[in-house]
Amino acid sequence: MTFSTDMSVAIGTLSLRNPVITASGTFASGREFADFVDLSRLGAIVTKGVSLEPWEGNDSPRIAETASGMLNSIGLQNPGVEAFMERDLQWLADNAADTPVLVNVSGHTAEEYARVIERLETVDNVAGYEVNISCPNVDEGGMVFGMHCAPAADVVAKCRRATERPLIVKLSPNVTDVTDIARAVVAEGADAVSLINTLLGMAIDATTFRPKLARGVGGLSGPAIKPVALRMVWQVANAVAVPVIGMGGIMTAEDAVEFMLAGATAVAVGTASFVDPTAVIRVIDGMAEFCHARGIRRAADLTGALVAEPDA
Amino acid sequence: MTFSTDMSVAIGTLSLRNPVITASGTFASGREFADFVDLSRLGAIVTKGVSLEPWEGNDSPRIAETASGMLNSIGLQNPGVEAFMERDLQWLADNAADTPVLVNVSGHTAEEYARVIERLETVDNVAGYEVNISCPNVDEGGMVFGMHCAPAADVVAKCRRATERPLIVKLSPNVTDVTDIARAVVAEGADAVSLINTLLGMAIDATTFRPKLARGVGGLSGPAIKPVALRMVWQVANAVAVPVIGMGGIMTAEDAVEFMLAGATAVAVGTASFVDPTAVIRVIDGMAEFCHARGIRRAADLTGALVAEPDA
Amino acid sequence: MSDACQDISQGHPLLEHVEVLGNERLAKGVGLVTLKAPRIAAAVEPGQFVHLRIAQGRDFILRRPFSIHRAEGDDVEILYQVLGRGTRELAGMGTGTAMDAVGPLGCGWRVADGVSHVLLVSGGLGAAPLGMLAERLAERGVAVTVAMGAPTDDRLVARELFEGVARRVEVTTDDGSAGMRGFVTLLTQELIAAGEFEQICACGPEPMQRIVAAQADAAGVPCQVSLERLMACGIGACLSCVVSTREGHKRACVDGPVFDAREVVWDASEVPPKH
Amino acid sequence: MSDACQDISQGHPLLEHVEVLGNERLAKGVGLVTLKAPRIAAAVEPGQFVHLRIAQGRDFILRRPFSIHRAEGDDVEILYQVLGRGTRELAGMGTGTAMDAVGPLGCGWRVADGVSHVLLVSGGLGAAPLGMLAERLAERGVAVTVAMGAPTDDRLVARELFEGVARRVEVTTDDGSAGMRGFVTLLTQELIAAGEFEQICACGPEPMQRIVAAQADAAGVPCQVSLERLMACGIGACLSCVVSTREGHKRACVDGPVFDAREVVWDASEVPPKH
Ligand SMILES: Cc1cc2nc3c(=O)[nH]c(=O)nc-3n(C[C@H](O)[C@H](O)[C@H](O)COP(=O)(O)OP(=O)(O)OC[C@H]3O[C@@H](n4cnc5c(N)ncnc54)[C@H](O)[C@@H]3O)c2cc1C
Ligand SMILES: Cc1cc2nc3c(=O)[nH]c(=O)nc-3n(C[C@H](O)[C@H](O)[C@H](O)COP(=O)(O)OP(=O)(O)OC[C@H]3O[C@@H](n4cnc5c(N)ncnc54)[C@H](O)[C@@H]3O)c2cc1C
Ligand SMILES: Cc1cc2nc3c(=O)[nH]c(=O)nc-3n(C[C@H](O)[C@H](O)[C@H](O)COP(=O)(O)O)c2cc1C
Ligand SMILES: Cc1cc2nc3c(=O)[nH]c(=O)nc-3n(C[C@H](O)[C@H](O)[C@H](O)COP(=O)(O)O)c2cc1C
Ligand code: FES
Ligand code: FES
């Protein structure tokens, strides 16, 4: 080893020790993974979505396995921002003080999003926000905001006024042109965008004639969606000037590198953490090895390094 | 066996001996499969997309395998409608006269679609048309028409004026609300809609830093997309009054039944035919067995039979 | 983590590479697999489970949860019923097959010191999480009565285990091929009413557990039930496995799978789609 | 179907359940698998291929194409190089493994009656579709000269086969561990210029084939090349495997894989991404 790769990347003013973060809703607030993962090694921890009041979420069954993927209809169950601050943020302050915490924020209205942020502004150990305008599993709010430019812009504008911390907006893939939405939220001051959230899907049990999820539809995640995610990350990275956080089906370091090549500055590991609770560490280590083996001195050099011309 | 299931279904005025048809572009015009499949057993043969003039299609590589799926960027290579009539339709007239032939139609402009149909009106062995406004692999035309209501309606209106034969419109899944487009094309006289075409995706080779497809992006098909396809079929079947032809990742009879339960009147087998050239027959036989085992007297009774309430 | 679970301070879950030592068919579609899993075996408490990565491919990606039926030395035993693809693959695994397991997971049975006689109620594969409990209670000198039901005689899996350690084992079968004909809830009706038990631990199909819970409640006997939910993570992070309780949604994987029956809001709790 | 292919009236492809009879490692990452495939073995012509369903899961779904290296009695032999997941699984297949195969497919080598001396040019695994050709030509009494190249001595797979039937076998290796040091195109340059051959049949990396084609063209010798493309259906339906030719896009799976070298428009023909 004649050099060591600089793994750090920057999301606006936020600097991460490496490009690998957790995908919201798949890592809780890290506590449940502490037996498997050294949290101080993560690029950042992105929390489960938090709303102003407690949300009960949807009925069971809430998941269904599909070919190379899974559907979920959790419905943003969460204890509300107050309980979240008391339990989760406090635990993180005590146990993972070195790792940036990005709080994933949800609301039924644009005002609610902003009020969650206002509340979180009062604590120190929040490095930034990921505004989730793309959850397909709640009736009001959620994906509805992320499917059209005007409501997306409205949520972001209100959140922007509530904080000077880094503001990441999580985009929905269930749209005709994801770059339209990306441009709209960047115009309102988003410091970064993250994508993709889950694809709206459905599973049916042919033996019972019933949907497999109590809610009928849910969000598709896992390797099945990687091609769609890569395409959208590539489109958005070419359309906006802010950093892109890429996710969707990342299981291995190689998958993560593909997202960086497509234009992502950082990547998030989601469903993979259910399959292997150490997945996020495997991806971090694997990416470092990948860079080292190829003489890549800065992981950030992978970003957008896709060679567009076909091989000759 | 105390009864036999009536497998026939009707797509408007077109009656099919069973609900299982071939997905456009995955079965050519049937000739290549004649060694594996008794064409007289199919519900219908849907041909590869046909345009007014010959199209060369895209460069190689044109496919890439992904988790439980594949990307293709064939780009509607076809010899043009004249050569198609001489070779393919003539061969079908000679070798599969009993099976309805649905010609999948493409064009760079709405006028071109209509002119392809006008030309095909001059021959007898065309049972109807599937108008492809959803191909993600061509630069002009293709998916562009299917992503917004006005151009979709325009293509359909012009095609409708060109024929009284059954007109099926093939919808793109790469849209915010597929029911909007479905309603728009039904308003212009579509007799049925078929969905889904492929999801726009991308694959990247982390070792070469290049896209795996020469064109960069391509269409995702196969089991990976089934949850998205089922969801859209269910949405569209609940939104329009015309029959829906469901497809996307059907590999087995059970998959096909799921699409029927979601609201499809017929189903198409696509990528599965590459994996197993006899797939379409397996699906037909399996669906008949499924119905028989459950005492279902008419396959058509499966359509929309989803029980929406969760299991108690 | 729920307070109940913290009370008994169950250990930390771990990721262990396990190996199949034996795989025995017990009845049609029912088997017993023995895994070499020293670290999990050393840590497991009755009622806990392991989350097994059965598939190697990326097509079917989620782990599958299984109760630990018994633990002895370095080994754990799992009693399984073939339902779908995962359990089919499990049934086909020969000696030497390697897998990875996350465990021991969840909050198991809690039988307080001083309890002198416990009724275990098992419906079908409900015997799975009760085997180790019966053994441990017997070791502690707690009297155990087992009421078990199954469709047929050969499906009364774990009957020998129970007969080896319990004071009394009563059986029912749906077809009368062994014991009383009918559901196990017929037996428990009488047994519970007779008033011998200070606690009931029940596992089986959810409707059965619900009836036993009602019988226990009527008799004023504390009752614990073990509930199954589809699980993604198995460690409390994803919220896919929730059970409706009087205190809202709780996670079957860490707050359960064993719950106080009175906590459960049965009406709202769905069972996974049946076959 | 191309006219060329119809000329030699190759038979109908079929779907056959095949079984691994043996699987031998020849060099690092290179193996030879023998399959029991009586119907395919009976029908195959040199240069044709089979489309193997290697994976059982639904995660990796597409078949993989492999040339038939030799056919004898009920068996066919495939020479393979481990590149990715499919070939890795193939390399791991033990005797008795069942698969299904579609074949024989494609339009193979065409050596007209009356041709008396043919040069076979093999680069690396390019030997795969040439083995059976060498044998059949020798049986027909056609003189065969083989020029073969590989990175190292141990990678000169099929050398023995060729030495058994050919009049002359010349080798090159990249590292000089056998024969001349350098690429096989150094050899062919001389051999072709010497003017002994009425026909050339070449297979190997596409840049090599292209150079041989140019050498043949310069010498006025007819040349056939066998081109690889990623293939989905393998039977001519999906158009995933096109080669750019003077007559437009042609399908490697049915119009090829063997093409007349002068037909191929080399500039536009891409090779699959290299490692
Ligand atoms: C805490 C816990 C402990 C368990 N312990 C055991 C055990 O000891 N032995 C055992 O055999 N099983 C046990 N199960 C159930 C076991 O996890 C499932 O049977 C298994 O995951 C099914 O996997 P599969 O791939 O075979 O079926 P899938 O293909 O996933 O499903 C096949 C069918 O079974 C249904 N199904 C899936 N999971 C369940 C379930 N939990 N209950 C009822 N139906 C289900 C599905 O809806 C589907 O209809 C336990 C479950 C939990 C949550
Ligand atoms: C007509 C025909 C005949 C063939 N005959 C043989 C044969 O006899 N022996 C043999 O070893 N191989 C042969 N091949 C190539 C063989 O099909 C591929 O090597 C195989 O499909 C790779 O599968 P995989 O799952 O191991 O690799 P994948 O995981 O699919 O791919 C791994 C890497 O290899 C690359 N790759 C895939 N296919 C090819 C290819 N055809 N050429 C170059 N790179 C490729 C991919 O782009 C990727 O980078 C033939 C191909 C064709 C079209
Ligand atoms: C069980 C589950 C819960 C999720 N919850 C949230 C959430 O609360 N907020 C959010 O923005 N995204 C949520 N997501 C989406 C993921 O963060 C991620 O965008 C998506 O799963 C795609 O990545 P993956 O394929 O790696 O899982 C959730 C995903 C899953 C599977
Ligand atoms: C190789 C390939 C070529 C296709 N060509 C066409 C086409 O010409 N016209 C069209 O409407 N759809 C075309 N499709 C889309 C299929 O008809 C189908 O909608 C899609 O593949 C989803 O079904 P599947 O998952 O069963 O393959 C093509 C798909 C594939 C894989
Ligand atoms: S399975 Fe993830 S929280 Fe219970
Ligand atoms: S592989 Fe389908 S046409 Fe050649």
Termini distance of chain C? Answer: 33 Å
CATH superfamily caption of the largest domain in chain C: Nucleotide-binding domain of ferredoxin-NADP reductase (FNR) module
Domains of chain A (count)? 1
List the quaternary state of the chains: heterotetramer
The CATH topology of the largest domain in chain C comes to Rossmann fold
| SSE run of chain A | EEEEEEHEHEHHEHEEEEEHEHEHH
Poorly predicted spans of chain C: 268-275
Element-level helix/strand string of chain C = HEEHEEEEHEEHEHEEHEHEEEE
Tally of helical runs of chain A? 9
Shape of chain A: globular
Overall 3D form of chain C: globular
Give the topology:
The complex is a heterotetramer, with two copies of chain A (312 residues) and two copies of chain C (275 residues).
Chain A: E1 9-11, E2 14-16, E3 20-22, E4 45-46, E5 63-66, E6 69-72, H1 80-95, E7 101-105, H2 110-120, E8 128-132, H3 143-146, H4 149-162, E9 167-170, H5 178-187, E10 192-195, E11 199-202, E12 204-205, E13 210-211, E14 217-221, H6 226-237, E15 244-247, H7 253-262, E16 266-269, H8 272-275, H9 279-293
Parallel strand pairs in A: 3-16, 4-7, 7-8, 8-9, 9-10, 10-15, 15-16
Antiparallel strand pairs in A: 1-2, 5-6, 6-14, 11-14, 12-13
Helix pairs in contact in A: 2-4, 4-5, 6-7, 7-9
Chain C: H1 3-7, E1 14-27, E2 30-36, H2 38-43, E3 49-53, E4 64-67, E5 70-72, E6 75-81, H3 85-91, E7 98-105, E8 117-123, H4 131-139, E9 143-150, H5 159-165, E10 168-173, E11 180-181, H6 184-194, E12 199-203, H7 206-219, E13 223-226, E14 242-245, E15 248-251, E16 258-260
Parallel strand pairs in C: 8-9, 8-12, 9-10, 10-11, 12-13
Antiparallel strand pairs in C: 1-2, 1-7, 2-6, 3-4, 3-7, 5-6, 13-16, 14-15
Helix pairs in contact in C: 6-7
The complex binds flavin-adenine dinucleotide (2 copies), flavin mononucleotide (FMN) (2 copies) and FE2/S2 (inorganic) cluster (2 copies).
